[in-house]
Amino acid sequence: MLHPNQFQVNEAWIAFRLNDEPIHTESDGDFDFLALVDAASGFILGSEPIPTELAEPTPVEAMRLLEQGQARAKQWPRTIFVPTELRAKFLAAEAERLGICVVRVSQDQLVFFVAEPRESFRQRFGSDGTQ
Fold first, then answer.
1. Is residue 16 part of a domain?
2. 84 domain-assigned
3. Taking the model in full, what pTM does it have?
4. Which among 33, 75, 77, 109 is least buried, having the fewest CB atoms inside 10 angstroms?
5. pLDDT less than 50: residues of the chain
6. Which domain holds residue 78?
7. Count of domains in the chain?
């Protein structure tokens, strides 16, 4: 299992789905939230709503998420970890285009990094995806 003490701040980011269940809106349908967190600090660098019918971020959404991270971190990471269970081919492609090494790992390897942000999100929006 990966652990924050294995990294320096801004060395590696982790991309993950923030919510357990889709977030429902009356006007725009259902959304999942893709988030980026710094592996060393646990600081959330950005999040992007992704319509559930798309199943993964578009190239524009992927780039917007990466740019949010860069704006907050003031640099690009060397590595971005992406769960194998997450459909994110455009995110991986955009990261690689920027010279970031993309490492696909099992969600189980990222539990330490994603548990707290997911719990906070769950408390804010509820386990059923409603506010």
1. yes
2. yes
3. 0.87
4. 75
5. 128-131
6. 4-125
7. 1
